[in-house]
Amino acid sequence: MIKIYTLGGYEEVGKNMTAVEYDGEVVIVDMGIRLDRVLIHEDVEFQKMSSKELRKLGAVPDDRPIRNKKVVAIALSHGHLDHIGAIGKLAPHYPDVPIYGTPYTIRLAKSEIKGEEYFEVTNPLYETNYGEIVQVSENLAIEFVQITHSIPQSSIVVIHTPEGAVVYACDYKFDNNHPYGERPDYKRLKELGREGVKVLIPESTRVAEETKTPSEAVAKMLLEDFFLYEGLEADGLIATTFASHIARLQELIEIANKMGRQAVFIGRSLAKYTGIAKQLGLIKMKGSRVLRSPNAVSKVLKEVSQARENYLLIVTGHQGEPGAILTRMANGELYDIGKRDTVVFSAGVIPNPLNIAQRYALETKLRMKGVRMIKNLHVSGHASREDHRYLIRMLNPESIVPAHGEFRMLTHYAELAEEEGYMIGKDVFISRNGHVVEIP
């Protein structure tokens, strides 16, 4: 029997964590945080808090159901914080258990661990290549299958058991025209379907959208269509997107170069994600600058304000996060933002009440200053209904446990599964955080 412990992300978008047990041995997949549960408390210092305190806030998964199990490996699907942000808090519960992931994911995980101030993390971290199968016990092996998402080197994680594969697909989309060559490994996914998939654990965030998620090439075209238009009249140009979206950042660098402007990255998270990507050759920073220290930010923004037409500022703050660069600009700090400036949002609003409220406040402040705003030059990194349908048909899993979504999203996935011949309660299982699904 295979047991699926649904520890986090099964009644929300965030703090993803799943554990797969076979014959008394457990593989954990992902250890994420739920950022909004941290941000609503102004005095919370995440790095200095215990997992118990953060669990009470609902910020990290409750891993107590597996705390005394024999955990043989921790696998990380990709580098977003809702999948790796709790490593420093939860990995110490499983001392010396190895952590595996692709090179970019593991280096981001190391960055999270480096900032941890409450626990000492002793787990070894291993960079794993696509196509490599790692034997983690006599009965269990893990594999990372290449997939596309909104961060480099994302994976579908496969846990091989004697009863068949458990396939964890959170997060992904099928991008067949990625501007920088990333491609889903359709060949391997189809092979897994032929070999036998016991359980599919898919994300459900956008399954209600009856379409296929567009390629990143569409986002690139949207950005170029705006920025490279001959009639564009703008002095100050400011763009904001996810700091981890390396492809989008690469597009903005290339656009700035074509415009004869210098791309200037401002914000700690932008410096972190681009720095690691540069080490691995995942981004070309030619012609751009990255500002890390507060002194450098203040100095350069004074220069920019005197010659706005020479720069494309790329800043943090697309969700209206307190302390982010764009939010501080809107508050009248750092840079005299106003009628001479255009702000391009190359990101959607994360659908939770805190983000929606913060983004509303940010846009209102910018509007009051007379800033021109261009929104939604963006495509999602998450699978829509037809991406999901294609994955089901490729893998032909015996059972499905939808993940990564609020309860309504999980049920939307179950509806799709029923269209494909499955039945709720028989081979599709809707779970909640802290529960276990037994697969006979």
UniProtKB/TrEMBL annotation:
It comes from the Archaea. InterPro entries: Metallo-B-lactamas, RibonucZ/Hydroxyglut_hydro, RMMBL, RNase_J, RNase_J_2, RNase_J_arc, RNase_J_b_CASP, RNase_J_CS. It is found in: Cytoplasm. Residues 14-221 form the Metallo-beta-lactamase domain. Its cofactor is Zn(2+). Its EC number is 3.1.-.-. Zn(2+) 1 binds at H78, H80, H149, D171. Substrate binds at H378, V379, S380, G381, H382. Keywords: Cytoplasm, Exonuclease, Hydrolase, Metal-binding, Nuclease, RNA-binding, Zinc. GO terms for cellular component: cytoplasm. Gene3D superfamilies: Metallo-hydrolase/oxidoreductase (3.40.50.10710), Ribonuclease Z/Hydroxyacylglutathione hydrolase-like (3.60.15.10). Homodimer. This is Ribonuclease J.
